[in-house]
Give the backbone structure.
Amino acid sequence: MAGGSTHPGRSVTSRALGILDAFCSSAPRLSLSEIAERSGTPLTTAHRLLGELTGWGALIRRPDGRYEIGRKLWDLGLLAPVQLELRQVAAPFLLDLHTTTRDTVHLAVRDGVSALYVDRVSGRESVPVVSQVGSRLPLHATGVGKVLLAAAPDDVVEQVLGALRPVTPHTVTDPAVLARELTEIRRRRYARTSQEMSLGAASLAVPVQVERASGPLAVAALGIVVPPHRRDVARLVPALEMAARGIGRELARSQEFG
C-alpha cells in the first residue's frame, strides 16, 4: 500500500484531497480519528497530512482539537467561475432588492442535490436565517432549492424524491406532494416555503435564467426570506422577477462579450 494508505496506490495528493472531502455541511468540524475513519487514512498519515494542510491554511485546528475548513480554501473557492462571475454580476441587484425590502436576499446554484449559496445580503431588520455564503442546504426544504429542483434533470429529481428528510415539522417529505409542488413551481415560475428549513422564516424564490438557442436555462435561483406571518409575500414576486431578469441579461451579456 502506497504510503501506508488503506487504499492501495493512492498518491499523497489523493490522500490530502480525501481528508478535505471528509468535511461536509453535516460534519463541519472533525477530530483526527473521525477524519482518518471518514477518509480511509491511517492515523499516523492523517496526522501528518493534517499538519501540512493546517500549516498551509486549508484547515484550522480548534482549541478543542477538532479541525475545520480554513480561510485559504474559502478564498480560493471565491475564484471559481460559478462564484466569481455570478457574484459580480448579481451583487448590485441583490443590494437593490434588499434596500427596497429590508429582508434577507440570497442567490444559490444547484450543486448535486444541494442548494449552494453563493451570495447573501441581510440587515439588522432581516429575519434570522441558517443560510450562509458557501453553505449547502437541501433542495427540498428551501425556496431557492425548490426552484433549482424544478429545473433539474429528471434523475436529480428522482434522487431527491427518494431521500426526503424532515428539517423541521413543516418540511415536505411526501414524494407525491413535493412532485405536485414542483409541477406548480414550473407553471407559476416561483416557489414559496414556510418554516420548512427553519422555524420563524418563510421564503420566496424565482429562477435566474439565461437565454439559449434551445430555450431559457435556469443557472441560479434568487430568493428572499420573510416572517411566516407576513401577508403580502406574493407582492414580492414582481420585484424578485425583475431582479432575476436583470441578472440573467447581464450574465448573457458577459458570456457573449467576455
